[in-house]
Amino acid sequence: QVNLVESGGGLAQPGGSLSLSCRASGRFARVLTMAWHRQVSGNERELVASISSTGDENYSDSVKGRFTISRNYAQNTITLQMNSLKPEDTAVYYCKAEFLVLGGRLSPWGQGTQVTVSS
Predict the structure, then answer these.
(1) DSSP assignment of 8-71, as one string?
(2) pLDDT band for position 105 (50/70/90)?
């Protein structure tokens, strides 16, 4: 069994900053790509940022230049630093990771954490 536990989020004013963290745990051989997605009620979940096992980063156009994803490989943790926040960044943010386990791969979601950007 593998798990993703998220922390951070909350309320920020436009132009402000927030940080999200996600820690992977459980029984696995390796953690491959880790990512943050977000979802606004009624909309599909969208990719925000991802980071591969080799450190390659990928960002959606809507957050490029404002958000930064980083990874601690020893602790199997990723952090999403969100700067210059906009009201349209308001969403539930979900961590997702691909695990290499005995017998194959698993790609669970975290429980989600609310980010609200409002004055």
Answers:
(1) E-EEE-TT--EEEEEEEEES-SEEEEEEEEEE-TTS--EEEEEE-TT--EEE-TTTTTTEEEEE
(2) very high
Q: Is 108 exposed, middle or buried (0-12, 13-18, 19+ CB in 10 A)?
A: middle
Owner of token pair 């906009």? 86
Query: What is residue 5's DSSP assignment?
Result: E
d(CA 22, CA 9): 11
Percent of the chain with pLDDT over 90: 97
DSSP-derived pairing of the beta strands 46-51 and 30-39: antiparallel
Query: What is the pLDDT, as a whole number, of residue 98?
Result: 97
Residue 105 carries which side chain, given as an amino acid letter? R
- For residue 45 the two structure tokens come to 């979940």
- The residues, any chain, with a CB within 8 Å of residue 30's CB and separated by 6 or more, are 53, 99, 100
Q: What count of residues does the chain have?
A: 119
